[in-house]
Design a protein that fits this description.
Layout lengths: L33 E4 L7 E2 L5 E4 L10 E5 L15 E5 L3 E6 L5 E8 L3 E2 L2 E2 L5 E5 L2 E7 L1 H8 L4 E7 L6 E8 L8 E3 L1 E7 L6 E2 L7 E2 L6 E8 L18 E2 L5 H5 L11 E4 L19 H4 L1 E4 L4 H4 L4 E6 L4 E9 L12 E5 L2 E7 L1 H5 L6 E9 L7 E8 L11 E2 L1 E7 L15 H17 L1
Parallel strand pairs: 1-3, 18-19
Antiparallel strand pairs: 1-15, 2-3, 4-5, 5-14, 6-13, 7-12, 7-15, 8-9, 10-11, 10-13, 12-18, 16-17, 18-29, 20-21, 21-28, 22-27, 23-26, 23-29, 24-25, 24-27
Length: 444
């Protein structure tokens, strides 16, 4: 396979590391976080960040039909050798068993590095993953996913409803749709977390809500809007990664010629004399302060702004409901109706005359808003459009809009499924990969 360098257009979340220790908060033994390097025989190995990983053997319900292996190649795009250079390979259904608090939502995160392990090619790694009967991944191929997204490794992250039994079973099952398949995983994290969801209005269906609080979700995107990439080390307790939003802006994604102009807004940063703090309504675990200290606005030209939208475009799976979380913090204005704007999801109005100062109660105070939208299975329904436009109805002082952070979560369907299709690699990528494999075969 081609060993790929990382690019900033992920459908799934990647995690880069820096020099400080990542803090995953827990309170008491019943809130223990499980941070596991799969296939490793060394207890307490540390990654390049100093984060400690435990071995996976004590969590396996059975090690029959499994084996451990080491990667034959270290891709320079990997953030660390630990936990990516070891793997657990499973030739039949295999479960990991965790003792978890019965009243806490769980953040579950996997990392997959599709490469060759002791002559075993990850091309045949196609499998399902479930958690206590909830389907997380279905017919999942890390190899195809990484090839399509030109990424060296893949991360999948989920927020699972509390497990009342206190026992979480995560099961890997090789696909039965082709021969000689196996399952594999490089790391697995199970982290107790606070409840961060509540019932959310479904856009386009007046009076209808989605019971997010009693649903499990997959994190599809997590963006620091107008700001820099925020690594897991700088998250507020859950080791989450916040990506730069610029690749998803409409004209960035489709090229400046899409509308024969480029309108990307401007990045702004909170001035030193404005203090931004977490509040009771927006506690630390919702998002780190760095998300609220930067933003993207439309800029100072009202004539341009009233004729334009700030628009982001995201690839998603059809036939699912999505929760879109908007993070706001106005650190420029002090009064209501200085900056009001409308919020759209797929050209449907999610909010009219949004006013961050009125919502928050003042300057420099974080606030977030959730909206739900359902994606059907028609042409174009695999694209989720997020738009902001200055509100004309209220005649604000500034014709502008602002956004600090954005998260998109997929909600499990009525059948208890979160699994979507693998992305499809382009013909150019497939041709390049075939050529590379031919060269490697000739060299051997």
């Amino acid at each position: 396979m081609i060993h790929k360098s990382h690019i900033l257009f992920p459908l799934v979340l990647l995690s880069l590391f820096s020099s400080n220790t990542i803090r995953v908060r827990s309170q008491g033994s019943d809130l223990k976080s499980h941070i596991i390097s799969c296939g490793s025989s060394a207890e307490g190995e540390t990654d390049s960040d100093g984060r400690k990983w435990t071995t996976d053997s004590t969590y396996l319900a059975s090690s029959d039909n499994t084996k451990t292996a080491e990667a034959g190649y270290y891709d320079p795009a990997l953030p660390s050798k630990v936990p990516f250079m070891t793997v657990r390979i499973m030739s039949s259904a295999t479960s990991y068993k965790f003792s978890v608090p019965s009243s806490k939502r769980l953040l579950v995160r996997f990392q997959f590095y599709p490469t060759t392990y002791n002559s075993v090619d990850s091309f045949n790694g196609v499998f399902d993953v479930s958690a206590n009967g909830l389907t997380l991944l279905k017919n999942f191929s890390p190899f195809i996913t990484a090839l399509a997204l030109t990424q060296a490794y893949i991360i999948r992250e989920y927020s699972i409803v509390p497990v009342q039994s206190g026992t979480l079973n995560i099961t890997f099952t090789p696909s039965t749709k082709r021969e000689k398949t196996f399952a594999f995983v490089n790391s697995l994290e199970v982290i107790p977390m606070e409840e961060i969801f509540k019932p959310t209005d479904l856009i386009g269906f007046r009076g209808q809500t989605v019971d997010i609080q009693n649903s499990s979700l997959q994190t599809m995107y997590r963006l620091s809007v107008g700001g820099d990439y925020i690594p897991a080390i700088k998250d507020s307790g859950l080791a989450r990664t916040w990506w730069d939003d610029s690749p998803y802006l409409l004209n960035a994604a489709y090229g400046a010629s899409f509308f024969n102009k480029t309108f990307l807004g401007v990045s702004i940063e909170a001035p030193a004399n404005v203090t931004i703090k977490h509040t009771k309504d927006v506690p630390e675990y919702i998002a780190p302060l760095n998300v609220y200290k930067t933003a993207r606005s439309m800029g100072p030209n009202p004539q341009v702004n009233v004729k334009s939208n700030l628009t982001w475009v995201f690839q998603v799976d059809a036939n699912f409901t999505y929760v879109v979380r908007f993070h706001f913090c106005d650190f420029q204005n002090t009064l209501g109706n200085q900056r009001t704007f409308d919020i759209y999801l797929n050209n449907r109005t999610a909010e009219e005359t949004a006013d961050v100062i009125q919502w928050a109660g003042g300057i420099g105070i974080p606030v977030y808003k959730d909206y739900a939208t359902h994606m059907n299975d028609k042409d174009g329904d695999d694209l989720l459009w997020v738009g902001l436009h200055p509100s004309l109805a209220t005649h604000p002082q500034y014709y502008d809009a602002i956004l600090n952070g954005l998260e998109i979560f997929k909600v499990n369907d009525t059948g208890g499924n979160l699994g979507g299709p693998n992305p499809v690699p382009s013909k150019m990528l497939l041709k390049a990969d075939a050529a590379a494999q031919s060269l490697l075969a000739d060299a051997a």
